[in-house]
Design brief:
heterodimer, A: 403 residues, alpha/beta, Rossmann fold, Coagulation Factor XIII, Chain A, domain 1, six-stranded mixed beta sheet, five-stranded mixed beta sheet, 8 helices, 19 strands, B: 261 residues, mainly alpha, globular
Chain lengths: 403, 261
């Protein structure tokens, strides 16, 4: 089987900062083509490290990774905009890249002129464009304004026209970088349909996207990049959970950092009367796993506090307040606490959807006006076997339908 | 190098399209329209006549019509040259979006900006031909040299354009340096005067390849003479050298454009 794309141990380095090579350094560079095996110099870093993969004809491959993982660099290398410092690559077939579809537009020219211009830049011949012109314009939905300079277009019309041009090429290999997020929902659906059409014609597609559902519905194989390296390469349903893990990990870290900075700000009354000494809480919970928390507290200097209220909140990483429980509302009367004590909290079975949550404990005075302590250092992660990427839902209650 | 030229031919559609774009943009929403193509030559010729008049007063020779015709003939290639260089220096940086986003041979950008100037040049040439007929300059067998000279001019311009556009991509001050050289270049090039006016310093003026090309154009068009063998060989060699060096430098730096722009 012949591969259409071969990526063989490719390395690419970039420079940080603004420093330019001086002319004296640059001139010898002009005449020597390969700077292979030159070690990293100051401020340089590898954006792509030893990446290898082969793609067969007709494959749809997704490239995923957190921001800065090197996805776009890989695409730029594939599309020959940049060349690797080491390693080699081979492309067999007509390749076109939808990296930024409106890059070829000139604002002074009309829609019609821009369609011709952009299509030519993307590699179409004049005749091809003549044949497809009406189709392109219909697809974009800006027919009325096709003879208006594009500088007068709305930004949506602008990118829709750009995408339409790009979508009507018949490449053997198509590279797509986040361009599908233009336009409204119906236009996006049209785009996805167009990609499926291309697929059924036997095109090979490499897709870079953060939209999980998009990747999931289109790609059979996913390559996961992390810090410029391939960490996973395989069927989508195996790699996507890995990707989610990375994203979760990052969210978790973000949340911890946020809480750290919040800690400093809360200090209205730093001399809290109660300390939370220990929280017994797991880091990971599965679906329907029982959540039992043990909380140990100690009042400062053995002081006695009358009628305290204990409160528990669960907040998701994106600040959605998921649930809350207050002892006074539940009708639990606590006369007083003094010295060390222990509270057991039974949250029952976990119904939270996969994600990162913060569990927040607080102890208040009897009027619920003044907190003795707010403890927001506990982060839990909920993981569920089998993929569920609807990241905006909070609860997965057990729903029974009867007809 | 051959590979680059082959790619350029392969992308001729794109070159045409970009040339058209440059022209459309230049003539769209423009007050002068096609007058633009002859505006700069007219201003330059007026300046030339003024200088010629001043020289005539100083040297106490009468102002000869033939001198003015020579100026008009030489001004056109000169304006073609400076506007081409001016546009091509900017062509890569000005199209930065394309350079970082889409693959095609970058030389297309330089070539199309020069071709757009070539279009202006052709418009101006048409006007000039009418004028020359009115002034009864007449034809001669030596006009057959003209296409060669124009090709040399083109190669020289293209080579220099490639070199300078790539240089400007890496070092942005190149365009200011070029701008200054172009502004005063007319004094170092035999446009308003003929190199012969310098007597034994004449070869110095012709060392500038553009100078020797302009002088030979003047000889074949206005003076109806055979080009000077020595200087036409010199012009051929220097233009080819400029072209080859331009292509090689451009080709070798091209892979680094996207990350250094």
């Amino acid at each position: 089987m012949k591969y259409v794309l071969e990526f063989d141990h490719v390395w690419k380095k970039f420079k940080k900062g603004e420093k330019l090579n001086s002319l004296r350094d640059a001139i010898p560079h002009l005449f020597k083509q390969d700077d292979k095996n030159i070690p990293l110099q100051d401020l340089e870093f590898w954006a792509v490290k030893d990446v290898s993969f082969n793609i067969e004809k007709g494959d749809v491959v997704g490239i995923m990774g957190a921001n800065g993982a090197g996805k776009s660099t890989v695409l730029k290398l594939l599309s020959r905009i940049m060349i690797p410092n080491r390693g080699s690559m081979k492309i067999n077939g007509r390749l076109s890249a939808l990296i930024e579809v409106t890059a070829g537009f000139h604002p002074e020219l009309t829609g019609r002129e821009n369609v011709y211009l952009n299509a030519t830049i993307l590699g179409m011949r004049k005749k091809e464009i003549d044949n497809k012109f009406d189709e392109i314009v219909d697809f974009s939905g800006v027919k009325e304004f096709i003879d208006t300079p594009v500088k007068r277009y709305s930004s949506g019309m602008y990118s829709r026209l750009g995408f339409s041009v790009a979508a009507h090429m018949d490449p053997d290999i198509l590279l797509i970088d986040e361009v599908l997020s233009v336009g409204d929902i119906s236009f996006q659906a049209k785009c996805a349909q167009k990609i499926r059409d291309l697929l059924s014609c036997g095109a090979t597609i490499v897709l870079v996207s953060h939209q999980l559902d998009m990747i999931q519905s289109l790609c059979k194989r996913v390559i996961l990049l992390q810090n410029g390296e391939v960490t996973k390469d395989g069927p989508a349903e195996l790699v996507i959970p890995h990707y989610q893990n990375i994203v979760f990990k990052k969210k978790e870290d973000d949340l911890r950092n946020k809480m750290k900075s919040m800690d400093g700000r809360v200090g209205v009354d730093t001399r809290s009367l109660v300390d939370i000494v220990h929280v017994d809480l797991k880091k990971n919970y599965g679906y329907r796993e029982k959540i039992n928390i043990t909380l140990e507290y100690a009042t400062r200097e053995n002081e006695k506090i009358d009628h305290p209220i204990f409160n528990l909140d669960i907040v998701r990483a994106d600040c959605v307040h998921c649930c809350s429980s207050r002892t006074d509302i539940l009708g639990i009367k606590i006369d007083s606490i003094q010295g060390k004590g222990k509270v057991e909290i039974d949250l029952g079975e976990n119904m939270l959807a996969p994600g990162i949550y913060m569990v927040k404990f607080s102890i208040w005075d009897k009027e619920m006006i003044h907190p003795y302590i707010i403890h927001n250092k506990e982060v839990i992660r909920v993981e569920i076997d089998g993929l569920s990427n609807h990241s905006d839902i909070v609860f997965l209650p057990e729903v029974k339908w009867k007809f | 190098m051959l590979q680059m030229l082959k790619e350029l031919i392969e992308y001729r559609d794109l070159t045409m399209m970009l040339t058209l774009r440059d022209l459309r943009v230049r003539y769209k929403q423009a007050a002068m329209g096609f007058l633009w193509a002859i505006f700069m030559p007219i201003v330059a010729v007026c300046a030339g006549i003024l200088i010629k008049k001043a020289m005539a007063v100083v040297s106490q020779h009468p102002l000869d019509a033939q001198g003015i015709i020579s100026i008009s003939v030489k001004v056109l290639p000169w304006t073609f040259f400076i506007s081409s260089i001016r546009f091509s220096v900017q062509s890569l940086v000005g199209n930065g979006d394309l350079v970082t986003k889409i693959y095609f041979p970058r030389a297309v950008l330089v070539l199309s900006s020069i071709l757009a100037c070539l279009f202006d040049f052709s418009v101006a040439v048409c006007v000039l031909v009418i004028l020359l007929t009115i002034f009864k300059v007449g034809l001669s067998i030596y006009l057959f040299w003209l296409p060669l000279l124009i090709i040399l001019l083109f190669l020289y311009t293209f080579g220099l354009g490639l070199l300078l556009s790539a240089a400007n991509l890496f070092y942005r001050d190149i365009k200011y340096v070029v701008e200054i050289i172009l502004m005063f270049g007319i004094f170092f090039t035999p446009v308003f005067y003929s190199a012969a006016a310098f007597g034994r310093w004449k070869p110095l003026m012709l060392l500038n390849p553009l100078g020797s090309i302009l002088e030979e154009i003047d000889r074949v068009v206005v003076l109806h003479q055979m080009p000077d063998t020595l200087w036409i060989i010199y012009a051929i060699l220097t233009s080819l050298a400029a072209f080859v060096i331009g292509v090689i430098v451009f080709h070798n730096t091209e892979p680094y454009f996207a990350e250094n722009i």
